[in-house]
Design a protein that fits this description.
With 130 residues, this protein is an alpha+beta fold. Helix content is 20%, strand content 16%. It has helices spanning 13-19, 37-40, 82-89, 111-117; strands spanning 31-35, 49-54, 62-67, 70-73.
Length: 130
């Protein structure tokens, strides 16, 4: 009597990796610490925010920076799972579609709005001896 092998799944390796998702039986809430950018990076830093996010108690914390390059994890880059958690801690929309937009018939760019949004750097001093 011949035995037929069991039918194999027709999923590709990438599809089967997506299908197998581990869920936590008792999920932990991430621990978020908002740090001072000047204390972490230095007094001349351009970073607007530095946030330490510990997703699970058994994992190392992620340092998430917000600077001119955008939001990113020090170790894993912008695709890290800690980046949206850090953004939510700062009350910043995670994706661009969540930002409110002005209707076309209203003028939202007044002179006072533009002046308040514009940052003017102080003039540079000349070094002595130049």
């Amino acid at each position: 009597m011949s035995r037929t092998p069991p039918a194999r799944s027709k999923l590709t390796p990438s599809q089967s990796a997506k299908a197998a998702v581990q869920i936590d039986l008792f999920p932990e809430r991430p621990v978020i610490d908002v740090l001072s950018p000047s204390a972490v990076v230095g007094p001349r830093t351009a970073a607007r925010s530095v946030i330490r996010v510990r997703m699970r108690s058994v994992e190392a914390p992620h340092l998430v920076f917000h600077d001119r390059h955008g939001w990113y994890c020090e170790t894993h880059g912008p695709a890290c799972e800690a980046v949206p958690v850090a953004q939510l801690s700062q009350h910043i929309p995670v994706d661009a579609s969540a930002t409110p937009t002005a209707s076309p018939d209203t003028d939202t760019h007044t002179a006072t709005d533009t002046e308040s949004m514009t940052h003017h750097a102080p003039p540079r001093r000349k070094r002595s001896g130049q």
